[in-house]
Design the sequence.
């Protein structure tokens, strides 16, 4: 756990950096009751790829399951592919490489892939994304069509906005509180600037005993993290809307889908490139906005 202390670069990863909270979170999502002595070992990847780390939270449960958990305000259909890459890196981290050359099978934790969605766009309570959905057509290259692909990865996506998955949120105080905090920020942004909306949302939560101890203990850090996260989301949204507009101009369904996908991929690449070059959040937003206007 200590190895990951400096990589809690989002409110979500900071909030869910405690093994006891992760135990409760996993129990709520999976509908199980993990005993208090069930070991939770955090092994979140720390390579700087986006906002200081590759994935939001990664942890093992009882040394038999490995959970890769992401939270997103937009649904990315590339999550199965991204999580496949994350999983490979995590296994590299936890498996003794020397044992790979033994004749006997190396026992490894079974993976579980979860995305928690808290954006503004309507989304179902629960959906499944599959890696195989992105596979190219292999007609004529293989004999027959196997029912089961040689490689598959299944991601469960849960909507954690207020009014969705109430039973799940009711079983995890931290998850429920995070949902309230984000919903209040969305609400206050209708009439306030970003920073004021965040401060108002935090004030509301503290007044109503929602994540009170967490927010009081980490108030300045939470504000800084939230501001950074949401400014990047705003910058990404600029590029996403550009992709949508390009798709609309095609005038065909194929063009709209292609425009959305290309716009999303392009904005992600540009933001990651700017972060890698050391740009500040304000510089990133200004750079992307000027590109669209130009």
Sequence:
């Amino acid at each position: 756990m200590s190895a990951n202390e400096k990589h809690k670069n989002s409110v979500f990863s900071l909030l869910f950096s405690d093994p006891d909270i992760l135990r409760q979170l996993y129990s709520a999502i999976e509908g199980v009751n993990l005993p208090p002595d069930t070991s939770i070992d955090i092994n979140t990847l720390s390579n700087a790829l986006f906002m200081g780390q590759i994935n939001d939270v990664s942890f093992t449960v009882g040394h038999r399951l490995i959970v890769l958990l992401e939270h997103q305000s937009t649904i990315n259909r590339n999550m199965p592919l991204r999580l496949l890459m994350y999983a490979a890196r995590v296994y590299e981290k936890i498996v003794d490489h020397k044992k790979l050359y033994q004749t006997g099978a190396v026992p490894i934790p079974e993976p579980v892939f979860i995305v928690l969605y808290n954006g503004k766009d309507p989304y179902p309570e629960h959906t499944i994304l599959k890696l195989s959905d992105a596979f190219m057509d292999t007609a004529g290259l293989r004999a027959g069509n196997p029912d089961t692909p040689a490689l598959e990865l299944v991601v469960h996506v849960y909507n954690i906005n207020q009014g969705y998955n109430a039973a799940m949120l009711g079983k995890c105080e931290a998850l429920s509180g995070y949902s309230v905090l984000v919903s209040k920020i969305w609400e206050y942004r209708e009439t306030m600037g970003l920073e004021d909306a965040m401060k108002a949302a935090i004030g509301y939560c503290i007044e109503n005993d929602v994540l009170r101890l967490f927010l009081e203990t980490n108030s300045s850090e939470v504000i800084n993290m939230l501001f950074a996260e949401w400014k990047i989301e705003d910058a990404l949204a600029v590029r996403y809307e550009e992709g949508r507009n390009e798709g609309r101009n095609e005038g065909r369904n194929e063009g709209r889908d292609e425009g959305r996908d290309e716009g999303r991929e392009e904005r992600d690449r540009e933001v990651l490139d700017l972060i890698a070059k050391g740009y500040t959040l304000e510089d990133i937003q200004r750079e992307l906005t000027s590109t669209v206007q130009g």
Remarks:
- Residues 18 and 103 are 38 Å apart (CA to CA).
- Confidence is low (pLDDT under 50) at residues 1-7, 48-53.
